Amino acid sequence: MPMVEFVWWPATHEFLNDIDAVIRPTVAHISSANGCLGIYHGLQEEDKAKFWMVVVWESHAHHQAMMNSADYPLMVGRLKPYFSGELKMNHVEFDKDTAGSFSAPVTTIYFVQSKAGFAAQDSLAHGLEKLSKRTSTTWGATQEDAEMSIVIEGQAVGEVNAGGSELYDGIFEELQKHANIEVLHTKLKLVFGA
């Protein structure tokens, strides 16, 4: 499975006023890297000042090679003036294809952090696997923290309910016994790839 990189930050007004023009050189740089399969971006629905970029890589090695390139610091440096807070990043290899989740009208992102004493591999994994049986839902542990998993789900605008639907059959209640869950939504736009 490909590796997915999530990058997000609170953006300046200047950035938000002309996102496509400001981010274009970054998209061009990343998309030209060997192994870049797709790039999406959008704003977080709960906080329209938070910009999200999602990069789908053939492998973590391809992503690392781009980061090790001589011009990588210049690319990051071009963006720094547009951060109005901390840049955050997670890398995940999901259990199935992510295209349906990222191309949906709304992508719901669940950060699932294991509570003390519960390993993600145990009962959490069972609940996450049940959740990912939905067509547009997939999950994986972050490379940064083995106790943190990310679930993504593609939804139509009217479906967005943070797991309150009978379609979830108590899965969220089960997960919340073993994990803290943060839910957010974004409307991603494909800017590179198929």
Automatic annotation (TrEMBL):
Signal peptide: none annotated. Transmembrane segments: none annotated. Residues 27-72 form the ABM domain. Pfam families: ABM. SUPFAM superfamilies: Dimeric alpha+beta barrel (SSF54909). It comes from the Eukaryota. InterPro entries: ABM_dom, Dimeric_a/b-barrel. This is ABM domain-containing protein. It comes from Hypholoma sublateritium (strain FD-334 SS-4).
